[in-house]
Amino acid sequence: MIRITVYQNDAGQYCGFRMEGHAEFAAYGKDIVCAGVSVLVINTINSIEALTDEIFENAIQQEKDVVSFEIVSDTVNEKAELLLQSLVLGLNSLADEYGKKYIRLKFKKKAGGIKRC
Predict the structure, then answer these.
(1) Disulfide-capable partner of 33 in 1, 25, 93, 95 (CB 3.0 to 4.6 Å)?
(2) What CATH number is associated with residue 43?
(3) Which domain holds residue 30?
(4) What is the pLDDT of residues 83-111, one digit of tens each?
(5) Are 91 and 3 spatial neighbours (Cβ–Cβ below 8 Å)?
């Protein structure tokens, strides 16, 4: 199962996420759930990097099947939050389509001030 924790700051804005695991929907190379999640996650990171001025930290640990991303700017700008909202929309759509057996999302508040993640 792919487990994704989406972080929100004290203002309720999305400001990061951690993804871990594999869907195990199908054999390696044919797992469309893993492929879909991977595309959404990597595209979100790349889009925030290319289209915003956000300062963020991310890490990909392939051997542990973990991708983490967190905005470390003092505030989350509107473009970055919109891209993260789009990620959540896509992930929820995949979970609805293929089932909570393969992908599970949870949301977690991260303390750190009014706007910081």
Answers:
(1) 25
(2) 3.30.70.1490
(3) 2-109
(4) 999 999 999 999 999 998 999 999 999 86
(5) no
115 within some domain: no
State the DSSP code for 102.
Answer: T
pTM of the model: 0.91
Assigned domain for 56 exists: yes
Query: For the chain, where are the alpha helices, taking DSSP H only?
Result: 32-51, 78-98
Q: Which long-range contacts (CB under 8 A, 24 or more apart) does 74-77 make?
A: 74/115, 74/116, 75/115, 75/116, 76/9, 76/13, 76/14, 76/15, 76/115, 76/117, 77/52, 77/53
The catalytic residues are 22, 34
Say how far apart CA 38 and CA 46 lie, in whole Å.
12
**Is residue 83 in some structural domain?**
yes
Per DSSP, 52 falls in state -
